[in-house]
Design a protein that fits this description.
The complex is a heterotrimer of chains A (about 425), B (about 500) and C (about 425). Chain A is about 70% helix and about 0% strand. Chain A contains 16 helices and two strands. The N and C termini of chain A lie far apart (about 55 Å). Classes of the chains: A mainly alpha (about 425), B alpha/beta (about 500), C mainly alpha (about 425).
Chain lengths: ~425, ~500, ~425
């Protein structure tokens, strides 16, 4: 039958997984019923509510979200209330059903797999969440650069992950004793920021800026494709020049083991998250208290108005792209002490940043930070709670992306996004 | 307008015959070189095509192997008056050019090498193999090449994709006309590449493809010097049994190597009454924290077996140690790549208490060939110890060269025959292939032993101190190679 | 007029050439080895596959203005549908290919209906996420899909094929070659017809200004979904047929790198022309293969020689024309001279490439005492090269590298039109910026 009868690798399948002590009984029956209840009513709410809103000539932009939450949380009861009493329902009508919906999902999960650690151990959940927050802060810092670029230039930079990769390498070659200059980690951070900033500025100035000078019919689309080309170029240049051997530096500071109550935190991540928060504080100071920062925010709000008061939007574009690249580079430098650094490390960071900025709302800085933390927690809990141990880790990215897809469908503006 | 099309056609008609070159038929004959002869002139005279001279070189050298009175042409540009050479028939020459006879390029012997050099393949593995191939090639050519001709190595990137394995083999065989193929890192590629080798009847020596089925199908063309996956699993399970483990966590990668390796290990552990859980991670996974928490919260394992490779393994080991379940407090079988990384020693507490599975002779038993290779490898790549796949790559090429030399020709059957009878001393030790066409695998043995190097030494080693030189490590398992006791954390 | 004739003649010659290539191998055994063999055919077959992907992507992006990074994922859906159906239901290859195409269309419909009502950027982000999820799930569900080991798929003709007394083995390259070529031509014809119809007009209207198009009564979302479904189906079809050709498929066929290469093919060919991006697909894929290890293998040497010889011949003929016929080359004569020079250079390049390569490597051997390092590993550098080319093309030749040339021949005058339009747009933009 098959052209390669010998490719079948799983003769020993029958023995597989039999010896696992973690494999417990599953009870899919009631769990599926609960799940079906949530999904069906959520779906009905999501589809029907906007139609009812529209029929009454109301603003239907949030109707899908409200309807879904109401249906998923309290089923037909709340849906009928929502449909009859529209539109004036205050925030409590969102929060209570969302919590109920989460509770229902958790209940379904608990009945499905009662012996799961996420059901039996509170400490376990807390340690997963704290790990998620730690890594999530860094996802947030990476994504902030992307959202900054989006808010000023109106494009998504597909080369963002590659700047992150570059920042890590810059820091490695500055800090490392054996292969680099052996300088202090702080200098490594600064170098990473500087190099990525310069590359970002040069790229924007030479390649992206001409797109906006009226010579190109659809500048936005070609600009996005250009960042794609840059991503390609940076990643494979790094591979060709630096090779694929992993690089890593020691933790910047020696903190020893950090234990809070029953949970242990990995010191290198705590350092990285600390650096991430520091970067965030400096960025906020820059945006709120310096002339350039204020000019950036002005451009992001209204290009024409900013131009009237004498801010050159083109220069702001360049600055924003450089800053965005620098933020990615800095987070790369912070993470090179946590992860083994390879040229293709950026691809994952890119896709994760996309997820984060959509979740947080495109163009919103606090949104990106909170989106990052949410994704961190979701991925952490997803891997921690997924019933089948052997597959849990393989699905790590999928958990975040499912949240992403759901948010995109229910509330495309994200958590903090402006109206589209 | 018609005029131009006409001239266009004329130009085409003038040039096409020059390319396709019709030629008169002739009989194969002996010829004694006269003054003012050169091979392409003879080729034009007898075969009707000056470019057909490599056929004369090839057939003359073939005759020379049987009959000393024929000259041996090592450089087609240099022939001397009085040499007896053989002019092939038109059919023979055509057979030579169409590739049905294993051809020897213009004065070189072409050997193909497969390795992953770009994603999604393991680039670091492929790069290491490439360095090893280059060392082997230099040595072979410095020693006068093969059959008196320099060896030309054609290295092809397989990207770790099975489909690319087919394409790369087709390219090597059909386009470059190699006489043999060596190398490859990914089992998934090996599985498809062996089919092409079999279809085209070209001998191939696989270097680092562990999958049982590569040799178990018993193709006459397929040889392997890497260990068989199930045999490695056997050793792993024996080791765990010997240390008295009851529950083991296996951390593996979702690849053609990791999946069968984990499953075979699990099955063998189950046979021995050892419980186990397997965690699969995609190659390139960065954040292991959630799964480490999960391991910590579950029943305490007696051992963690890391079947991840490359930087992924390093990420896991380092993060696990940082989270408190590293080699400092339980038996952890780490990936060898980590040992060569300075950062490993700096950031993993008690990293030396890791146990490493090594393929290839323990350092104390290294042959001169191994030492020489290790020295050159260190010079070329800066790595203190050559990885097993680097040694295998090196040996596969040198083995192929020796086999061609012993076969005395590039005829595939002769090479296969030579490989079956070969005794080769290389970096991995003495390589032989006990079972094959001459001596079929007995009924009661697993068919995987076909054309399989039976003893790629699989050992468990431990470092006695941090960052120690790889030469001084202790071999803790199996008994045969043991040099010291296992230090338990 | 003349130019159009030449263009059509060249187009027909190219198609006939592609149709005849495989036979050259069998008819002339003494044809220079290395030019046409199993491997060359393999490269061309996969090149056709990428041509289908690139041209359908340019229908989506160039005509419709919609970004999708899931094009390879749709090809993967086609491939895995037929692969899994064949494996678990034992269906015939043809059934599987049809099912795969429909399945890709179905996925395209659902994704399109959900996402295409949002802004363009969202489609890009959603499709990239979808492509990753799909790849990861296929990879993780290894018990069902064989994961990264690859799912074995039946060959197109498991029992071989008998045509006019010839028997083709199941591994023969000729049947899949012609099937792929035919599919490419059919899908190109179909998509070109679509692009030229009212449908294409609406698409371009939507691309230029969505609101204006909606105001004029175009059902924007419906047309966007429709083009998304059609292009997904073409991708699914290509993927399904390729699966039956390569006979083993893995989730790694769908990595983002290859998606970027499809984009490169499309952009380098010309994003606003289906045929140009299809040619771009074939050319870029062939280059990717041949630049992989080496710049000095004989096949590359032929190209190098051609590139050196063609201008030389052209300038020689120009000199000859002026010197002996006392008439400078211009107009038709010039066009003819250019084409003739290129063809002659190509033929000479192919004819003498072996001896030249050998001579060079011997010269190197004599000078250094070691063989020329024939395998310079270019697998990373060639991608760097394409990254640079992609950026420069986008910056300086937004229409691609091939499309302007084709326009020059097929639609004389359109180049001037475009330039005029650009300048007008630039003038408007300037006045806007000034105010």
């Amino acid at each position: 039958m098959s052209p390669y009868p010998n490719v079948i690798l799983y003769e020993e399948q029958s023995n597989f997984m039999q010896a696992s002590p973690l494999l417990q009984e599953f009870h899919p029956g009631p769990a599926l019923l609960i799940l079906a209840w949530v999904v069906v009513w959520g779906g009905i709410g999501g589809v029907v509510t906007p139609r009812i809103y529209r029929r009454r000539d109301l603003d239907a932009s949030k109707a899908t979200l409200y309807g879904t939450i109401a249906g998923a949380g309290l089923g037909p009861i709340l849906l009928i209330i929502l449909w009859t009493k529209t539109p004036e329902l205050d925030w409590r009508w969102n929060v209570i059903p969302s919590l109920t919906a989460l509770g229902l999902l958790y209940w379904a999960f608990a009945t499905y797999h009662p012996a799961n650690l996420c059901v039996t151990s509170g400490t376990y959940v807390i340690s997963q969440v704290s790990n998620g927050i730690l890594i999530g802060i860094l996802y947030g810092v990476i994504a902030i650069g992307l959202t900054l670029i989006f808010s000023i230039l109106g494009i998504v930079s597909f080369a963002h992950g590659q700047f992150y990769m570059l920042g890590g390498y810059a820091a490695f070659f500055t800090i490392s004793q054996t292969m680099g200059a052996g300088l202090h980690p702080i200098i490594g951070l600064l170098m990473a920021g500087l190099i990525t900033f310069v590359i970002g500025v040069v790229f924007e100035y030479t390649l992206l800026r001409p797109m906006h000078l009226g010579k190109v019919e659809r500048p936005g689309e070609y600009a996005i494709l250009l960042t794609f080309g840059l991503a390609f170029f940076l990643e494979y240049s790094a591979l060709a020049i630096l090779g694929a051997n992993p690089r890593k530096v020691d933790p910047f500071f020696n903190l020893g083991n950090i234990t809070i109550g029953a949970i242990t935190l990995p010191p290198s991540r705590v350092i990285a998250a600390g650096i991430g928060l520091l970067i965030l504080v400096i960025l906020l100071w820059f945006l709120n208290y310096t002339w350039l920062g204020k000019a950036l925010r002005a451009v992001s709000q209204d290009k024409q108005a900013a131009a009237v008061v004498g801010i050159n939007p083109l220069n702001m574009n360049t600055l924003a792209f450089g800053l965005g690249a620098m933020l990615a580079g800095l987070s790369g430098a912070a993470l090179v002490q946590v992860l083994a650094w390879v040229p293709n490390i950026g691809a994952l960071a890119s896709t994760r940043s996309f997820v984060v900025i959509v979740l947080g709302g495109m163009g919103s800085l606090p949104g990106a930070m909170i989106g990052g933390i949410v994704i961190g927690i979701v991925e952490s809990l997803g891997v921690g709670c997924f019933p089948d141990v052997s597959r849990a880790l393989a699905y790590q990215q999928v958990f975040g992306m499912i949240i992403f897809a759901v948010v995109l469908l229910l509330k495309p503006t994200g958590l903090f996004g402006r109206e589209l | 307008m018609k005029k131009y099309l006409f001239w266009f056609a004329v130009v085409l008609m003038l040039v096409m015959p020059a390319v396709s070159g019709a030629a008169p038929l002739n009989q194969g004959q002996d010829y004694v070189v006269q003054a003012d002869d050169w091979l392409s002139k003879l080729a034009e005279k007898f075969l009707g095509d000056p470019l057909a001279y490599p056929a004369i070189t090839y057939y003359t050298n073939q005759k020379n192997a049987e009959d000393e009175s024929y000259a041996k042409i090592s450089n087609s540009d240099v022939i001397e008056v009085g040499w007896k050479i053989y002019i092939p028939t038109q059919e023979e020459a055509q057979a030579y050019f169409s590739g049905s006879v294993q051809k020897v390029g213009e004065g070189t012997i072409k050997i193909g090498a497969l390795m992953p050099l770009s994603a999604p393949g393991s680039v670091s593995g492929g790069t290491a193999m490439k360095a090893a191939f280059e060392i082997a090639l230099e040595e072979i050519n410095a020693a006068g090449g093969v059959l008196g001709q320099p060896v030309e190595l054609i290295m092809v990137d397989t990207e770790g994709l099975p489909e690319r394995g087919t394409a790369a083999m087709q390219r090597l065989i059909n386009q470059d006309g190699v006489v043999g193929v060596v190398g490859e890192y990914h089992s998934a590629v090996g599985l498809t590449a062996k089919e092409v080798a079999h279809d085209n009847h070209v001998p191939v020596i696989f270097a680092e493809t562990w999958n049982d089925n590569i040799t178990a199908v018993q193709y006459p063309e397929v040889f392997r010097i890497a260990p068989v996956s199930s045999e490695v699993a056997e050793v792993d399970a024996n080791f765990l049994q010997s240390v008295g483990a009851k529950y083991v966590v296996i951390m593996t990668e979702n690849t053609g190597y990791g999946i069968p390796a984990a499953e075979q290990t699990e099955a063998r552990l189950a046979e021995r009454g050892i419980e186990s859980d397997t965690y699969f991670a995609d190659l390139g996974t960065l954040d292991f924290a959630p799964v480490i928490e999960r391991i910590k919260a579950g029943p305490k394992p007696d051992a963690i077996w890391v079947l991840l490779t490359g930087e992924t393994s390093f990420n896991f080991e380092q993060q696990a140690a940082e989270a408190g379940i590293g080699p400092q407090n339980l038996l952890m079988i780490c990936n060898q790549a980590a040992a060569d990384s300075e950062a490993f020693w700096a950031s993993v507490p008690d990293g030396n208490l890791c146990v490493w599975r090594r393929i290839g002779l323990p350092q104390q038993l290294w042959t001169d060939a191994t030492k020489a290779f290790a020295a050159k490898y260190k010079e070329k790549t800066g790595k203190a110890t050559p990885e097993s796949f680097a040694m295998e790559a090196y040996d596969s090429l040198k083995l192929m060269a020796q086999a061609i030399n012993e076969a005395g020709s590039t005829d595939p059957d002769a090479i296969i025959n030579a490989l079956e009878n070969i005794t080769y001393n290389g970096a991995l030790g003495t390589i032989t292939f006990p079972y094959g066409l001459k001596n079929p695998v007995p009924e009661d043995m697993d068919p995987k032993w076909w054309h399989q190097f039976p003893d790629p030494a699989i050992t468990m080693v431990q470092y006695t101190e941090k960052g120690q030189d790889a030469a001084d490590v202790t071999v803790v398992f199996p008994e045969k190679y043991k040099t010291g006791e296992l230090i338990r954390p | 007029m003349m130019r159009t004739v030449i263009a059509w003649a060249l187009g027909i010659i190219a198609v006939v050439f592609l149709a005849l290539i495989p036979f050259v191998y069998d008819v002339f055994p003494s044809f220079p080895p290395g030019l046409v063999n199993e491997y060359t055919l393999h490269v061309l077959i996969v090149g056709f596959y990428f041509a289908m992907l690139a041209s359908s992507w340019s229908l989506l992006m160039g005509y419709g203005g919609q970004f999708s990074f899931a094009h390879l994922a749709f090809a993967g859906i086609g491939a895995y549908t037929t692969g899994l159906m064949g494996r678990y239901l034992g269906t015939h290859a043809l059934t599987g290919i049809i099912a795969g195409t429909l399945m890709a269309g179905l996925f395209g419909l659902v994704i399109g209906m959900l996402v295409l009502r949002l802004r363009k950027t969202y489609l890009a982000l959603f499709t990239i996420a979808f492509a990753e999820i799909f790849r990861l799930v296929i990879s993780a569900e290894k018990d069902f899909t064989e994961g990264p080991n690859g799912l074995p798929v039946e060959p197109l003709f498991p029992n071989g094929l008998n045509i006019a007394g010839y028997h083709f083995d199941k591994v023969d390259k000729l049947p899949p070659y012609f099937i792929m070529l035919a599919l490419l031509l059919i899908s190109l014809a179909l998509m070109s017809w679509l692009a030229a119809s009212r449908f294409g007009l609406f698409l371009r209207a939507i691309r230029e200004d969505e609101e204006a198009a909606a105001a004029l009564g175009v059902d924007v979302v419906r047309y966007k979904v429709l083009v998304f479904v059609i292009t997904s189906m073409v991708a699914g079809l290509a993927g399904a047929v390729r699966a039956h050709y390569v006979t083993v498929i893995t989730p790694n066929d769908m990595i983002i790198l290859w998606m970027s290469l499809v984009i490169t093919m499309s952009v380098l060919g010309g994003i606003e022309s289906l045929i140009a991006s299809a040619i771009g697909g074939i050319v870029v894929f062939v280059l990717l293969e041949y630049l992989r290890t080496n710049f000095l293998t004989t096949s590359v040497m032929a190209v190098v020689l051609t590139v050196i010889l063609a201008p030389t011949l052209y300038y020689l003929s120009r000199y000859a024309a002026r010197r002996w016929f006392n008439s400078p080359l211009k107009g038709r004569t010039r066009t003819f001279a250019i084409i003739a020079a290129a063809v002659v250079a190509l033929v000479i390049g192919i004819a003498v490439r072996e001896p030249v390569t050998t001579g060079l490597s011997y010269a190197y051997y004599d000078m250094t005492g070691s063989l020329f390092p024939e395998t310079i590993d270019m697998s990373a550098w060639r991608l760097v090269f394409f990254g640079i080319v992609l950026m420069l093309t986008l910056r300086f030749y937004q229409n691609g590298l091939l499309y302007p040339v084709m326009q020059y021949y097929f639609r004389p005058g359109s180049l001037k039109e475009t330039v005029a339009k650009r300048e007008a747009a630039a003038a408007i933009a300037e006045t806007e910026a000034g105010s």
